Amino acid sequence: MNRNHDISYDVLMTLRKIIRATDMHSKQLVKRYGLTAPQLMVLKEIMSDEDINIGKVAKKVSLSQATVTNIIDRLETRDLVTRQRSVEDKRRVIVHVTDKTREILKTNPSVLQEEFLEKFKHLEEWEQNLILSSIQRIAKMMGAEDIKITPEFENRFI
User: Fold this and answer.
1) Residue 130 sits in which domain range?
2) CA 128 to CA 11: how far, in whole Å?
3) 58: Cβ–Cβ under 8 A, 6 or more apart, which residues?
4) Terminal alpha carbon distance of the chain
5) CA 149, CA 137: separation in Å to the nearest integer?
6) 73-77, 123-127, 151-155: lowest mean pLDDT where?
7) pTM summary value
8) How many Cβ atoms are within 10 Å of 71's Cβ, its own excluded?
């Protein structure tokens, strides 16, 4: 077996470990907060902008508008968000978090593992950019940079 094959296999195994760690963290989020990672991302975006609509949320979290609408439907059922027509433009629907959500977000749950975030923020900026660049390069090498996340895939995490 040549050395290049060993390294590519190691890359694949490392990617699988990252995917597995992400899945495990997502399950912990659900268990601890009752929220999936996409739900948490949506809530944080809504909390950060008092005048945000579903389209803007979708753009910020890189999910389809249909998926974000589905997420917001579920969050609204649980009294975590409310929808309100804009006073200036009645066609526009603004989404707001509730006090219940504010209480949850006070504990600062993270979409990423805390250990990763802590270690990542202590890296030099050039190291952070190197990691990002490497991941983006891997995505490009796999032909994944142009892959659109389908609602079916996104719904696995809603």
Assistant:
1) 3-155
2) 19
3) 64, 65, 67, 68
4) 42
5) 18
6) 151-155
7) 0.72
8) 28
Residue partners of 83: CB distance under 8 A and separation at least 6: 72, 76, 93, 94, 95, 96
User: Could you give the C-alpha distances from 49 to 7, 11, 65, 71, 96, in angstroms and in order?
Assistant: 44, 39, 17, 17, 9
C-alpha 40/C-alpha 111 separation (Å) is: 7
- The domain total for the chain is 1
Q: What is the pLDDT of residues 7-34, one digit of tens each?
A: 888 998 999 998 898 888 889 999 999 9
Structure tokens at 19: 């995917």
Q: Which amino acid is at 15?
A: L
CATH number at residue 18: 1.10.10.10
- Whether 158 shows a pLDDT value over 50: the answer reads no
Place of tokens 């996340």: 149
Residue 4: pLDDT band (50, 70, 90) is low
Q: What is the mean pLDDT of residues 41-46?
A: 93
